[in-house]
Write a structure and sequence with these properties.
Low-confidence stretches: none
Structural class: alpha/beta
Number of helices: 11
Distance between the termini: 30 Å
Shape: globular
Largest sheet: 6 strands, parallel
Strand order of the largest sheet: 1-8-5-4-2-3
Radius of gyration: 18 Å
Length: about 290
C-alpha cells in the first residue's frame, strides 16, 4: 500500500426525518443562512423547501433563498449568488439538493472570500484559503459531494467544465434523510446508480497494486449494494430500505476513504463524462454511464 493521510471532518446526520434538524444545526454557525437549491417551483412542489424553511424558522434562523441551480451548475448562475452572499453576509450556506447544488455552494463559499475572478479558484490560478461554512442537505444521493471537498463547475461562456478540490470545501455537516429521496423518478435514480458505480470502478480498475483485498472487496460490496438496491427499486420505487442503503453507499463511494493506499488512480470516466455534459448538458450520471 501507498502512504496516505485521511481526514473526515464532516459530521453526517443520517436517518428518516433528519431534515428536521437543519435549523438546530444551522444555529450553531449563526442566525443567518443562504439557502441554495434548484428551481423554486420544483423544490416547493416536492416539499423539500418547506421542510428546511420550517426547521430554520423554528430555530430562529433568517433565510435568504437562491433558486435556479442547473443539473450541470454554471459559473454564470453562481456569480449572482456570490453577489448576494457578499451583500447579505450570511453566516452559513445550506445546499439543498444533489451534487450540482452542493458543488455550486462550495464554489460560492470560497469565491465570496476572494476579490478576484472566481474562476481563478477553479483553475488553480489563485489558492483557496477560506470559505463560508456549508451544510449539505442531500436530496439526490450520487456524487459523494456531501462528504468530499470537490466541486465541478461549467463556465458556459468559454465552454469549459472543470473539477477542483480542496479540503477546505468539505461541508461541515451533511444531513442524509432518505425520506427526501423517495420521490426521485426511476430514470434519475438510475443516473445516480451509474454515477456511484463510476466513482467506485475508477479506482478499482485504475490502481496498480497486485494485492489490495480491503479496497477491492469494499468496492465490490459497494457495487453489489447499488445493484441490489436498484433491483428492489425497480419493483418498488418507494422501497425505504433500498433508498437508505443507496444514500449511504453514495456518500462513501467518492469521499476519499476507499481509495486510500491505492496510489494515483485513473479518472478517465469523469474526464470523458465532463466533456459530454459540458457540450450537450447531459445529466452527470447519464454522462458517466
Amino acid at each position: 500500500m501507498y502512504a496516505f493521510e485521511f481526514s473526515m471532518p464532516t459530521k453526517a446526520i443520517f436517518g428518516e426525518g433528519a431534515v428536521a434538524q437543519v435549523g438546530s444545526v444551522v444555529i450553531g454557525f449563526g442566525k443567518k443562512a443562504l439557502l441554495l437549491t434548484y428551481d423554486e417551483n420544483l423544490v416547493k412542489e416536492l416539499g423539500f423547501y418547506q421542510k428546511v424553511t420550517e426547521s430554520c424558522a423554528a430555530a430562529g434562523v433568517e433565510l435568504i433563498s437562491c433558486f435556479g441551480v442547473k443539473s450541470n451548475p454554471t459559473v454564470e448562475h453562481a456569480l449572482g449568488v456570490i453577489a448576494t452572499v457578499k451583500s447579505e453576509q450570511p453566516d452559513v450556506i445550506i445546499a439543498l439538493g444533489g451534487g450540482s447544488v452542493m458543488d455550486e455552494a462550495k464554489f460560492v463559499g470560497v469565491a465570496c472570500k476572494y476579490d478576484g475572478d472566481p474562476w481563478d479558484l477553479a483553475t488553480g490560478k489563485a489558492p483557496i484559503t477560506d470559505t463560508l461554512p456549508l451544510i449539505a442537505v442531500v436530496t439526490i444521493p450520487a456524487t459523494s459531494s456531501e462528504l468530499n471537498g470537490t466541486s465541478v463547475m461549467s463556465y458556459e461562456a468559454i465552454q469549459r467544465k472543470d473539477g477542483f478540490a480542496n479540503p477546505i470545501m468539505r461541508p461541515k455537516v451533511a444531513i442524509l434523510d432518505p425520506e427526501l429521496t423517495y420521490s426521485i423518478p426511476l430514470k434519475q435514480t438510475a443516473y445516480s446508480a451509474a454515477d456511484i458505480i463510476s466513482h467506485l470502478v475508477e479506482a478499482y480498475f485504475g490502481h496498480n497494486l497486485a494485492w489490495a483485498p480491503f479496497q477491492d472487496h469494499y468496492c465490490q460490496a459497494s457495487i453489489r449494494t447499488i445493484i441490489e438496491s436498484m433491483d428492489r427499486l425497480l419493483v418498488d420505487p418507494a422501497d425505504k430500505e433500498a433508498r437508505a442503503q443507496m444514500m449511504w453507499t453514495a456518500s462513501y463511494a467518492w469521499n476519499g476513504f476507499y481509495p486510500n493506499g491505492l496510489g494515483p488512480c485513473d479518472a478517465t470516466i469523469h474526464v470523458l463524462g465532463h466533456s459530454l455534459s459540458n457540450f450537450f448538458d447531459t445529466p452527470h450520471g447519464a454522462s458517466m454511464s
